[in-house]
Amino acid sequence: MEVRLVHLSKYFGEVRAVNDLNLEIKSGEFVALLGPSGCGKTTTLLMIAGIYIPTEGEIWFGDRIVNDLLPKDRNIGMVFQSYALYPHMTVFENISFPLKLKKVPMAERRKRAQRVADMMQIGHLMDRKPAQLSGGQQQRVALARALVKEPDILLFDEPLSNLDAKLRLTMRGELKRLQKDLGITSIYVTHDQVEAMTMADRVAVLRDGRLQTFSTPDDLYNRPQTLFVAGFIGSPPMNFIDATLVQENGKVVVKAEGMRIELPDELGKRALARAKSDRVVYGIRPEHVHLDPEGDIEAEIYVVEPLGREDLLDCRLLGGSVMGVLAPAGQPVGPGDKVRLRFEAEHSQLFDPETEHTLLW
Amino acid sequence: MTEHAGSRWIQVFLIILVALLCVPLVVMYIWLLEAAFAKQTYGIVPSGFTLSNWRFLWEGFKNMPSIWRITFNTLVFAAIVTVAEVFFASLTGYALSRMKFPGRRIFLSFTLVLHAFPAVTLLIAIFYVLLVMGLYDTLLGVILVKAALELPLGVWIMKGFFDGISWDMEMSALVDGCSRFRAWWEVLIPNIRPGIAALSIFSFLSGWSEFLLPYIFTSSFENFTLSVMLRRLIGDFRFVDYGLLTAAGLYYMLPVLIFFIFTQEYLLNIYAGGTKGTQI
Question: What's the whole-model pTM score?
Fold first, then answer.
């Protein structure tokens, strides 16, 4: 089922929780709504579910506007962060509840519930009450309940947030696999960028109720459209420096105090063509900056943070800006040491400081 | 073992203090118990054992309907008040907990004020209303009045229990295919069973022991309740037959006592501030 949000807005009094959102989700696609808390992603999800009525705009399921359709008539399955299992019902009753409401005969109910439960590996727990299950098992029951009525659309509201780290990793993989196998259009709300990046076909980044960008994880990471997205995606986050864009000897150069970077010709041309002034925000990810005795940028180590596989070095440039550098673990440097840095210029990002839009992509 | 000796003495002192404060209460109940079975009492000391105080069970009272009729009336009164209160309170409580509508806040504060309002001041107005509606001197009339006066508190209590249920669960029910009403009935109500149980007990006891309303708004024999009957035992005889009075009092109290023993766990739920108690 294809889902389209057209100029969708939701106001709570004066607060614009969702503001003129446009989104087209293809049939069978796995889309993540990503953003910091309060960005409107859950509100959007609840509008799609039919719990909230949009203030403005339209929601299309296929070729049908569903704005006025009750949740029960939308044929959606939803998994909540709290799982929202019914404590007074057994696992079987929980899973088969949507079928009971559809007046599916008991024998059929039993068969379908058992099939979904087996798929979720909870087939042996049918007689338990939710309180007797572990968090992971409850999660699977919630998933089974969402799947049992063979919904057209699956909605997830931070479903993995309450699981411990290891289980979250397992469920992440399983969920992705399940979605691909079943081919059900899925919308997944999360504030965890790793979840969004690893699971989704496309990620919609929201901020203050507005859509920032809607693209594949690869584009999001390597070709961010806005300064916010560039800073929000990736850990440790991208480095930003206020700089000027100049032409020297036919080369396009980014300059800041204590820093000079020659852009590759292609990037340089694009940036120059789009820049409205010579002022830009220069961005580069920590993994694209290296300690290199041959490097032409001087810096001083400020602090060393060992991350296990790598060390994160906070280096202070001569101009005073601090730059995160990811280097293999066990660097023989410490705070106060003078080092030289080499930037991979082809991984540079440039943004307009006014519009915060990219100058490159 | 690790406690200070001092705090131990303080504890002993406190226990003695509380025990002393309880003595008058205990004495009252002991007297009630023994006077119901004694020929005579001298102060607190009984003399002689008899069951004749209980003869009203088989002989009835003078100038009153049979005790069974009166008991039946009281039971009907308490039961209908309970059913009505639980039914309306759980609908109203839900609406106040879950729905946004104009005047919701005012409605909430008004119910609190109504609860605090002394019912006695309304008696004359209620009398006129009942008279006009043709409900004066009917059990139904008194039941309606009692239920109405009890409702504000019931609504607040039920609202508290509904507040304790997560929105997620209700949303989940809606997505699973429930209408709003079905979600209320199939998902929310089963999860506030402790609240419903507590409120039922609470209103039943309150209905059982109600005196003022039936005393004032009924006058016929066939509408007598136990509390009114007790009042009559004290008032209508030239001298009070204390043996009979205590036996009848004990008879009146017994169901409440038994009821309380079996349901005190639920009652505690309600007094603990209307939050969700033990999960069923």
Answer: 0.80
CB contact under 8 A, B175 and A76: yes
Q: Which residues of A touch B173 (CB under 8 A)?
A: 86
User: End-to-end distance of chain B based on CA atoms, in angstroms?
Assistant: 37
For residue B271, what pLDDT band results from cuts at 50, 70 and 90? low
Q: Is the dihedral of CA A341, A345, A346, A348 positive or negative?
A: positive
Spell out which residues of chain A touch residue B166, defining contact as CB-CB under 8 Å: 82, 84
Residue B102, classed as helix, strand or coil, is coil
Max avg pLDDT among A45-49, B70-74, B205-209: A45-49
Task: Tell me which residue of B237, B248, B256 sits closest to B54, measured CA to CA.
Answer: B248
DSSP secondary-structure letter at A79? E
A83: left (phi over 0), alpha (psi -120 to 50) or beta: left
* C-beta atoms of A86 and B168 within 8 A: no
Look up the ipTM and state it. 0.83
In this predicted structure, what is the pLDDT of residue B236?
Answer: 60
Q: Which residue of B has its CA nearest to A142?
A: B172
* Cα maximum dimension of chain B: 72
Closest residue in chain A to residue B182, using alpha carbons only? A101
Contact A45, A189 (CB under 8 A): yes
> What contacts A357, CB < 8 A, 6 or more positions away?
A225, A226, A227, A351
Q: Which residue of A has its CA nearest to B166?
A: A84
Residue B279: is its pLDDT beyond 60?
A: no
Give the closest-approach CA distance of B180 to chain A in angstroms: 10
Tell me, yes or no, if B190 comes closer than 8 A to chain A by beta carbon.
yes
Least Cα distance to A142 among A171, A181, A111, A103 occurs for: A171
Number of helical H runs and strand E runs in chain A:
9, 20
- The residue of chain A with its CA nearest to that of B176 is A98
The span from the CA of A28 to the CA of A5, in Å, is 16
Taking alpha carbons only, the member of A100, A131, A199 closest to residue A159 is: A199
Are A41 and A35 in contact, with CB atoms under 8 Å apart? yes
For residue range A197-222, what is the model confidence (pLDDT) as tens digits? 999 999 999 999 999 999 999 999 99
Are the beta carbons of A340 and A294 closer than 8 angstroms? yes
To the nearest whole angstrom, how far is the Cα of B226 from the nearest Cα of chain A? 39
Q: Would you call A177 helix, strand, or coil by DSSP?
A: helix
Residue pair A345/A261 in contact by the 8 Å Cβ criterion = yes
User: What is the Cα–Cα distance from A343 to B185, expressed in whole angstroms?
Assistant: 64
Angle at B91 between CA B88 and CA B96, to 5 degrees: 115
- Rounded to a whole number of angstroms, the distance from the CA of A251 to the nearest CA of chain B is 58
Crossing angle for the helix pair B67-98 and B104-116, nearest 10 degrees? 150
Interface touch B191/A87, C-beta < 8 Å: yes
